[in-house]
Design goal:
There is one protein chain. The chain is α/β, with parallel strands linked by helices. Helix content is 30%, strand content 21%. The protein has 8 helices and 9 strands. The strands form 3 sheets. A 4-stranded antiparallel beta sheet has the order 7-1-8-9, covered by helices on one side. The chain has a 3-stranded parallel beta sheet with strand order 4-3-5, covered by helices on one side. A two-stranded antiparallel ribbon has the order 2-6. β8 and β9 form a beta hairpin.
Length: 229
């Protein structure tokens, strides 16, 4: 049985574990319960009424968080010619197809990889390295695109990708404890709206079953899920 320290127990006592709160109230409780000495990440966990074993019930997508993520995102753009210059102008940290070989040699100092379609033949060779780390570019995620400038700007501004896991849960980071309440609420609303929009047509019954928010070290706070039914 897992035991928690005094700080966690004290933080957990600030919320009623039997209640489901409105989003803003839940986020306020998360901020108030954070006790770590670093700026904790605020996370959302959503339990969905889908069976991810069926391809037509897989939930995935992207959303640009209005208030950003609170972290610096290092973007690598695999492109050449005009598209490479477009990526540079948009603020990409690393640009060029010479990075394909660097990745093969073990270099991985980036958080998002965006590529133009003409480069995917070579980028595809990196599947074993990038796939397990969630770094493989994907058209559905908008990271394989001709509009590379826009993709770079969105990634730098706070675009996140989400995907349901094998148990039917989706987890996402929506900011930092240091964010003001308005910023966290904006990000939470944008994320949940996108989850609802991503509902597969094959999903039956209750789609959004449970929602909770927490900080990295803090206790989970349940959010009223009836808002999304």
């Amino acid at each position: 049985m897992r035991t928690h320290g005094k700080k966690y127990v004290s933080a957990a006592a600030k919320r009623d574990a039997t209640l489901s709160y409105q989003p803003r109230q839940a986020l306020d409780l998360v901020k108030g319960a954070a006790f770590a000495k670093f700026d904790e990440t605020v996370e959302v966990a959503v339990r969905l009424g889908v069976d991810p074993r069926h391809a037509d019930q897989v939930v995935r997508g992207t959303v640009v968080l209005p208030a950003g993520t609170g972290t610096t995102v290092r973007v690598l753009a695999i492109a050449v010619g005009d598209k490479a210059r477009e990526a540079e102008d948009a603020g990409a940290d690393h640009v060029g197809n010479e990075y394909i070989q660097k990745i093969k040699d073990g270099w991985l100092d980036f958080d998002v990889l965006i590529a133009t379609p003409d480069q995917m033949g070579q980028v595809g060779q990196l599947g074993r390295v990038l796939g397990p780390r969630g770094l493989m570019p994907n058209p559905k995620a908008g990271t394989v695109t001709l509009d590379i400038g826009r993709a770079v700007r969105e990634s730098k501004a706070g675009k996140i990708e989400f995907r349901v896991d094998k148990s039917g849960n989706v987890h996402a980071a929506i900011g930092k404890v240091s964010f003001n309440l308005d910023a966290l609420e904006q990000n939470y609303t944008a994320f949940m709206d996108q989850i609802v929009r991503a509902k597969p047509s094959a999903a039956k019954g209750v789609y959004v079953r449970n929602v909770s928010v927490s900080s990295t070290m803090g206790p989970g706070v349940r959010v009223d899920a009836t808002l999304y039914r």
